[in-house]
Amino acid sequence: MTAPAGCQLIGRWRIIEADLWDRGYLNLGGPATITIGPDNKVEIAFGALQAGLDLSYCPSIAHFTWSGCDEMDEVTGDGHAELLDDGSIEITFAYHNGDEAILKAMRQASSTAS
């Protein structure tokens, strides 16, 4: 699915905090990021997790399912990302039959919405 015109979530976002993990864990494998492309090419990486997302877009919210690897184990889940009034996004990120975390991300300076 292609993002609707004016979707404010398109871009590269730096994950800056989580309710379950500290900043050291978030950046374990490199800077914690989520990249949301206009053509449903979406990736997230934090801690030991690297995953691809399949999104359903709206102008200020995206629902997704995801699959990837965490510490060499295959993992899946779902969640959503929502644009907040302060310009950040709040990501609800749930592992299938496991933890659910709330992540906060800020747009990277070189990334702009399409």
What would you say this structure looks like, in words?
The chain is mainly beta. It is built from 1 helix and 8 strands; from the N terminus they run βαβββββββ. The protein has a single domain, classed as Beta Barrel (Lipocalin). It has an 8-stranded antiparallel β-barrel with strand order 1-2-3-4-5-6-7-8. The model has no long low-confidence stretch (mean pLDDT 89).
Average pLDDT, to the nearest integer? 89
Structural class category = mainly beta
List SSEs in N-to-C order. Answer: EHEEEEEEE
What is the domain tally? 1
Low-confidence stretches: none
Q: In CATH, what is the class?
A: Mainly Beta
Calculate the terminal CA-CA distance, rounded to whole Å.
15 Å
Number-wise, the strands total: 8
Helical residue percent? under 10%
CATH superfamily descriptor: Calycin beta-barrel core domain
Largest sheet: 8 strands, antiparallel, barrel
Shape: globular
CATH topology: Lipocalin
Strand content is: over 45%
Strand order of the largest sheet: 1-2-3-4-5-6-7-8
Query: Do you know the CATH architecture?
Result: Beta Barrel
Task: Return Rg in Å.
Answer: 13 Å
Number of helices: 1
Show the helix and strand layout.
Elements: E1 11-18, H1 23-26, E2 33-36, E3 42-46, E4 49-57, E5 61-70, E6 73-83, E7 89-95, E8 100-107
Antiparallel strand pairs: 1-2, 1-8, 2-3, 3-4, 4-5, 5-6, 6-7, 7-8
